[in-house]
Amino acid sequence: MNPIQYPPVYIGLWFLFLISVSAATATRLSLGMTVPVTLFWAVVYGAGLFSGWYFREKRSNELKIATNILAVLSIFVFIIINFIQGLETAFLVFIISLQAIRNLTLFNRRDFYFAFIVSLMLISYAASAGKETYFIFFIIAYVLVAVFTLMTDYINDRLAHTRGGDKEILFNRMNLPVKGGGIAIAVIILALLIYFVTPRFPSPHIQTFPASGWWYDRDEMSQRDARKSGLNEQNGGGEPDIQGDGYYYDQTSDKSGYAGFRDKFDITDRGSCTLENNIVFYLQSSQPIYARGKVFDTFDGRVWGDSQFGNRILEGDRGKFVLADDVKSQGLGQVYIIEEDLAEFIFTAYKPVTLWFPGDIVEQEGDLSLKAPGFLRKGTKYSVLSDAGGIGRMPASDDPDDPDDGHGDYRYLQLPDSISERMKQLTYSIAGSRYGNYGKAAAIEEYLKTNYQYTLKTMFREKGYDTIEKFLFTSGEGHCEYFASSMVLMLRILGIPSRLVTGYTATRFNPMTGYYEVKRLDAHAWVEAYIDGYGWMEFEPTPQFEMPEGKDSKDSYFVTRDFLQYISGQMNDLIKSNPEKWWAEILRKLLDLWNSIKAFIGKLLYILRDTVKNLWYWFKGTGWMIISLMFFVGVSGCWIYHSVAPVIRRQRMRMMKETDPTQFVLRCYLEVERIFAKKGVPRPLHYSPKEYRADLLRRFSNLSMQIDLLTDLFEIARYSAIPVSSQEAEEADKAYDFILRH
Description:
alpha+beta; 19 helices
């Protein structure tokens, strides 16, 4: 194939490699590691392409032999990395290294196309593996540079077919790559517009359940239990230290910073909430969920505990763990990708029935929560199938015969000794008029959401065992653990089995990547209550939080709504995690303005929808008859007009012929112009009557006599001082009538 003659080809390839390698590296490493790795490969690829330009002229055999030796060595590197980091990382490094080696002798268009395909493979891998929104900028940059590079290749091909002065002109003056960049920008803008306005129809329900990453085994679980046992013996069996910071706990198992994932959960602890904006895991799911991690059943007024009743060890079949015999609902599939080291809890939507996890053993507690042999490490990927039925917006187990039913179990009805009579009276007053346990639970949930305020300031107040009493009867404000704990106590006063659950709210959907992004600040506490005839149901008593509903397929047709919600959520997260920053107040005002605009638009859309609905009801009633009648009258009127108008016009012209022959001739000529214009031969404004007559005769030669007569009479009537006679008017009338008929 032809050698490369145009140096910008190498420049375009270098930028392509820089973008694609950086994008692929960012999917495997942190941003801090991506930058130096990208700089390293930028230097390597730059030196290799410079060597390729040198090889194009010299064709050095020594360099070619060295390239072959390095290619063989890259295979051994691939095998080593495969054993250490896995096949995916090994293959990625192999492709990048192999192309760096090939650059040393890259000199013709065949090598160019191979290099272009390698860069396309890398950016495609990054697009499929990337879960961050900023990956769209990699895609845009790649498209721009790819168009530039292909244009330089086109110029290079043209240069191969030119000689002498033509070659010099092409080499010095062709600016096609610059024009191609403008075309690429226009295409990207058009593609984004199409992306936002084109409806997306639901995809078929086909799902895989991957599990990969670190392997968790029985030895790791033994080490974890031994470590916790040692801490308990050292610190008096884990008893509370009221004078200090609360309960002792295993620091190595608490990676999230949220106190709700400890074995003992003090709801007044400063770690009961976290405002950090780091992403802890990505979730792939067909709908938002509350991902439950830890369940607590005993409460002493301030500290929640887990009695660990009914715990059992499950052994999997090559990473698959069957937790229940069948799925009574359609089943909700979830894929979790861990981005930060977390506590050992395996997060799931309730109720999990099948788990695919990279390990040979997991622990299932009596409340059906799951624990890994050790803390969840970054890079772990696991899948869950949950049986998510329920009433309305509330997911539930939908199984009244669930073995984890709470009946006869003191754990879910236990009350602290410090419970007061006024709290019991408040509970009875809220739920007394409601029928059934579900109605009573819903009444308590609604009462807490509407009569109390959500705040994080309560984390820093004085601790005590009367925290819930102060919250309900004095302060009236608190964080989510106060609301959830209050509802559990009220339900238990009414004899309804209930428990406190901690986990993450997975409700932030990124339409650009298709993942739910779950951050540290999404750590949350809510309530599960056992409702006779339905099973365990989730309740959300905290204001500003709503139990997630299944996504409406109608709402998912367009990406615009999800995108705007995602942007608003990101701004809210920035404000929430940086409340003291000067720019947080600016963001808050911008968000308030946006919410006001959105509310106004929503109100207009509501009015429009209500108007359309009323019009539809009117149309179905009597509207269709009125519209049909109006349509009939309109069509009839048009028909009558087109039938009668020519007769009326003809009658007026005959009256004009008797009274004013000159004006009649002028009128006849104008009518003839109108007729011929409808036939496709209009008279241009700059044409004289004779020039127009020449055009008409070429098209309508059979009317030559009538056209000549009318043209001559028109010139007499318009330009002569002699008036038109009655006989001439009669001749004009006959010519006009002949043209009208033929």
